[in-house]
Amino acid sequence: MAILRFSKFISLFLLFSVANMCIGNAHASENANAQGLISCLIGGGVKNVTAKSYSAPGAYDSLLNFSLQNLRYAEKSVLKPYAVIVPESREQVQKAVQCCIVNEWQILVRSGGHSYEGLSSTAQDPDFVIIDLMKLDRVDVDMKSKTAWVESGATVGQLYAAIADKTSRYGFPAGVCPTIGVGGHFSGGGLGLLTRRYGLAADHVINALLVGKDGKVVDRKGMGMDVFWAIRGGGGGSFGVVLAWQIRLVKVPPKVTVFNVNRAGSDNVTRLVQRWQEFAPHAHKNLFVRAVVFGGKPEVKVTLNGMFLGSLHKFVKLVNKGFPEMGLVAGDCKETDWIGGMIYTAVNNGYSADFRNRFLPTKSYFKIKSDFVTSPISTLGLAEAWKIMEEQPNSIMILAPLGGIMDQIPSYQLPFPHRAGYLYDIQYVVTWDNAANDNQSMAWIRKFYDYMAPHVSKSPRAAYVNYIDLDLGTNPGNHGGVSMRQAKLWGERYFGGNFERLVHVKSKFDPRNIFRNAQSIPALPYE
Questions:
Q1: Which of 9, 153, 167, 461 shows the greatest Cβ crowding within 10 Å of its Cβ?
Q2: How far apart are CA 186 and CA 275, in angstroms?
Q3: pLDDT digit string (tens) for 480-508?
Q4: Pick among 3.30.420.10, 3.30.390.50, 3.40.30.10, 3.30.43.10: CATH of 2-132
Q5: Phi and psi dihedrals of 189, rounded to 5?
Q6: Is the pTM of this model over 0.70?
């Protein structure tokens, strides 16, 4: 109901905003092409436009910040879009893209607003607009073909709920957070609880509808196999606006087991994580066990959680044999179906059990960095890491296992290359609740990241594009001009040997670099 009320609120103030835009020259424009953009949009039937100079008091900020998850990018010093466009149909997306291109406005596309570095909400140059896809959130599940079409504005939670409405025997291998938009999630690959059994979300995308540089809609055949390859893991914002994705559902058993085990004490945490490294990446592919370490004094704590595709009895037997140090007790586990397991995990991570609610009520300032690990970290290495985490009470280190089927998928199948040879990925997280703590918190996480360098992958030090990190390097503004040598500083960390292919695909499909952001795939020419 909250979403319905918000939707009505959006419609009211958007209509009010557009009405005000028709007044004429009552307000000065920040850009000479602003009037051309607005006239083009209204003439094309795109009426859900809220502009900074024209909107009703509070309307612009409310819409801009509704999907913005990282409060660092709500600060006054951060560049804001001239307008937020909320298309109500695929045709309106096409028209919005065409109007932005003709009037020379940079396009940011927002699906769920979860970009760690705010790349769907802010840009390097002032002349940009956001195309927010929140109203394009339809999910059509076809059990005859065991596929679904999901629009990019839908959240992962909406996708899961739609599947569960039709079946209890099929699911989809995407992320834990139900409020992330599928548009960004699929574009970067998509890791989750079923990764070790089925691979990435993007591994199960079989078609897509894309609005490209000319505003035309193309499907898999029309865009060509190179572009279709690139949009499934090459990161969002580089090749156009993906309107919708056709996905292949995956089988899930009638019973799954989810669990949440909490332990404390630095010595105990060290012992558990050391054993976790030996067990989790090599366990049966139906088992996914994360280790989540929480910092702060007096000592660090760890939570071991995840999902087993099978009964509680089989799960307990498997863990007690391979990882008895986990110390399972009945209260740590729950046997349920797949959707029940996803809800259980989401709730234990602080999210709502209502998967159709896209609003995330609790927001914070945060910075996140990532790594991939190719050999177990030593006991000493872990113990020293905990000492650094004890300095920061709002620090988290999330270790998620790979292995399983990921070891069998070639690194070049999609742009996401981190398959065989990688044991697990790491997220380093720090949160804070006041902009005054920005510098201190950012300095702490960078220090922690530097400490971890000897213990993680090298040449390059790998990272995950969905955990985007601008510390790794950025494109310059004003249409780029970045060299291949410069772009490799971050590009090869995300995409390994696939980065050069992504650059060539980008250069052929979008040579004018229409779709760009601080870490989008650069277009040739390059040095």
A1: 153
A2: 32
A3: 567 788 899 999 999 999 999 999 999 99
A4: 3.30.43.10
A5: 125, -65
A6: yes
